Amino acid sequence: MTAALPRLHAVTDDRVAALPDLVRKATAMASVAGADLAVHLRTRILGGRAFLERARAIGAALHPYGAWLVINDRADVARAVGAQAVVTGRGGLLPPDVKHVAPQAMVGRSVHDAAECRAEAGADFLIAGPVYPTASHPDTPPAGLDIVRTAAATGRPVIAIGGLTADRASEVLAAGAHGVAAIRALWDAVDPAAAAAAFLDRLPALDLMDIEINGEPRHARRGITIAELLGDLSLDPRTVVVEHNRHIVRRDALGTVRVADGDRFELVHFVGGG
Q1: Sorting pLDDT into bands at 50, 70 and 90, what band is 78?
Q2: pLDDT tens digit sequence for 253-267
Q3: Model pTM above 0.90
Q4: Which of 19, 176, 203, 266 has the highest CB neighbour count under 10 A?
Q5: Angstrom distance (rounded) from CA 235 to CA 220
Q6: Mean pLDDT score, 114-120
Q7: What is the CATH number of domain 208-269?
Q8: Nearest-10 crossing angle of helices 192-200, 22-33
């Protein structure tokens, strides 16, 4: 799961989410980052319909590049648009509730101290910060690299946030972060694609393969089994029939058959009844 999670996360706030050229900037970043980019739609000012429409527009722009769409708080919107992840925080839905509403999505939780890190046992990954002083939360004291180390000690992938720049990426990686998240350093850049590239130059690249799932191009971690692929897709092997390169795979073989570049899959859900 760690390797499938993008390293670079472009997070919006209320100001950024309202930008008229938001989709253009997201597309520019995705064109250079591909599957190593996740765009987080986070805003409190958009109503349900407007939030959904903006999420669909961003998701459609990211899809050709394999970049992720992450929705903050609105698990219903995430399910409607097929987002790859949902992030919640204090006062938001708990991970089991998110997975009930949006079973296709990974779940991230925003954590700010050691107690929150220990409490988020159901999350797939953590967004830890603010690490450095940030204009987004000028009255919040930075937690420093200790919050990254504490979050990483839980064994889950950690995305560091708060005052992150390309020059600071190596510091949070050394503290145990899987990747970094930024707002102003990406969205306010004169050239968002160049800003994304500057971050990526300091982040280890994901080792991904090109595969096809139900006719759509996708990426998969190199060396994984079909069972691990289903896990990355948040699918229960007990409820999926897997056709691999035109051959049905027995359920007891899912953990031994490995995925290769160019493999084609047809995944069919079934529901048992009594």
Answers
A1: very high
A2: 998 999 999 999 999
A3: no
A4: 203
A5: 14
A6: 83
A7: 3.10.20.30
A8: 30
